């Protein structure tokens, strides 16, 4: 087994002000699914349908953060986090997806925010992390959902705008479109293939409306969006593989980032134009709404994608989809790389590639970047002494964080990107969507029977990294430094 990376070496590379955090999502950790007036999201309803969740679990309890948030914030404080990225449950705050903010729901987040601020942990709040109200029967296929989301954002901004340091409007709209509406792998479970593309535009329009609503509410925190980016590799030098790789790059990366950062949808090869009819007559006013100035851009990275032409067996990173066998491309396994428990390739050098592509494509229009998710699932076991040893996760975090620090350093492939922070996915083991409790991403182990929290070895290792970071100079030190420079 390889030796554990030296936490002090990594700590020395983290400049003062570089924010280190961990992330979660309400549907995955909160539980309390019908307490305090909370109503169903599409994931609550979908999880109760036999066959949708791998281990037949549901959202009712998950990690029980709704009742144990104080214990969880104490773990964050002990870890030494600068920031915590969480999401508001839409149906906890606005039961049924309409009307005023629920007092009971707001009180829970008041208590959570008070705990975070008392612990000197900066809150980064996500407004939409996939838990759409079940009453929205057409979901993001309906343009009206964008309007409702903008209204919801305004209400939440008015209620919590004085205590949130950063706002994320949407989390991974690509995953929502691809898994939820194109391939049938996630709620709401539709398999529309390219007919799912209207959900791209409606989500991005919702982002723009939410951004406007937050600013109108006078929130003090910065505003951004989080997209998941995957570098795309053609399976061979064959022209058809290159064409299909370009297609996948557009549908996974470009259609979600280009309108936000450039104000227009990407150009596609003529051979593919018919697939993108949903964007052929987009209203310029919509694009102006989508293309709001941002305070930061959130980037999630998990893996690259190797793409070959022709139909495959329906395998995707999140499961097998019959609908995927009807696509003109397929995902292939990236040989020569170790894998996570999910079967995802561990390829930190492609994290640097993703950052380099962002620099190349968006250049000076790219705002400061936060890595809002990066992490891996492994088969973690509790030893007889109660400890949880996870050396693979330690190596994963070390190698991926090192890769992007290298990439954004002078001479790196992403030199010039203003990288402001890194959030590990996830703070704790959680309910991993369609995989249920079978995939563990956490720095903290959760026994889903007893709900006991146990910090893993990766938690203790990261704790050492965070404790050993260089401190920001005091005013006196800065003055002394200036005098030395003058001499």
Indicate the structural class: alpha/beta
Number of strands: 15
Tell me, briefly, the overall form: globular
Q: What's the alpha carbon Rg, rounded to whole Å?
A: 22 Å
Strand order of the largest sheet: 1-2-3-4-5-7-12-13
Helix content: 25-40%
- Report the sheet with the most strands, covering strand number, pairing sense and barrel closure: 8 strands, parallel, barrel
Strand content: 5-15%
Terminal CA distance reads 51 Å
Order of helices and strands: HEHHHEHHEHEHHEEHHEEEEEHEHEEEHH
Residue windows where pLDDT falls under 50 for at least 5 positions: 477-487
What is the mean predicted local confidence, pLDDT? 96
* Continuous helix count: 15
Please describe the structure with a list of short key phrases separated by commas or semicolons.
three-stranded mixed sheet, alpha/beta, 487 residues, 15 helices
Textual characterization of the structure:
- The chain has 487 residues and is an alpha/beta fold.
- The protein is 38% helix and 14% strand.
- It has helices at residues 7-11, 26-29, 42-47, 65-79, 90-93, 103-118, 143-160, 173-182, 198-216, 239-262, 284-290, 348-362, 391-407, 457-467, 475-486, and strands at residues 19-23, 83-87, 122-128, 166-171, 222-228, 232-234, 296-300, 305-309, 315-316, 319-320, 329-332, 369-374, 419-425, 444-446, 453-455.
- An eight-stranded parallel β-barrel has the order 1-2-3-4-5-7-12-13, surrounded by five helices. A three-stranded mixed β-sheet has the order 6-8-11, with helices on one face. A two-stranded antiparallel ribbon has the order 9-10.
- α7 (143-160) links the parallel β3 and β4 (166-171).
- Residues 477-487 have low confidence and may be disordered.
